């Protein structure tokens, strides 16, 4: 069974631009959650989607948004990029909503210049 | 909100036993998880505790005391490949929503 796939793996943007990251969960997993990982703050929860609906949301500004499609694939978008948005963005899938047994992808490393 | 504390770094010798502690404060505790993350790789799930006591899984064990807001991850027969960051995560249930919070991780260095 294929693991969680995230694209792109690396990207460089400039301040003010926007970015879209994609995540394909493990087949059969209906929950997808997103995390931001930085050396200073560690792993921080962004949001969780289940059955195309956002179920939980972390403490991030509205510039961070996401969606989930009917095939459980998910995208997250960050608009008006700031230097502080440089981070590793991890997607995790799970069979059920709210479970702690998460299967993480390799992440998308975003650098904002 | 939540507050999770774990040591920043620990070192141990190959073949030894190491205990990584995690303390937390939460208003709606709904489970504690441990993850392992090797440098440059994705975190991988190690263990889950929701009731007090010890959960054993091979060389790894995790303990939880809800009354003390305390957990530890015990690694036995350490191997070089166990050098990694170990993340403690607490799931908080508030108003029907489940929000996981991760600690900043403990970097474990295993030396020969």
What does this entry look like structurally?
The complex is a heterodimer of chains A (113) and B (112). By secondary structure, chain A is mostly beta strands. In chain A, 0% of the residues lie in helices and 53% in strands. In chain A, strands 2, 4, 5, 6, 9, 10 and 11 form a seven-stranded mixed beta sheet that branches. Chain A has a four-stranded antiparallel beta sheet with strand order 1-3-8-7, with no helix packed on it. In chain A, a hairpin with a 2-residue loop joins strand 5 and strand 6. Chain A is globular. The model of chain A has no long low-confidence stretch (mean pLDDT 93). Chain B is globular. In chain B, 36% of the residues are buried. In chain B, strands 2, 4, 5, 9, 10 and 11 form a six-stranded mixed beta sheet that branches. In chain B, strands 1-3-8-7-6 form a five-stranded antiparallel beta sheet, with no helix packed on it. Chains A and B meet through strand 5 and strand 10 of A and strand 4, strand 5, strand 9 and strand 10 of B.
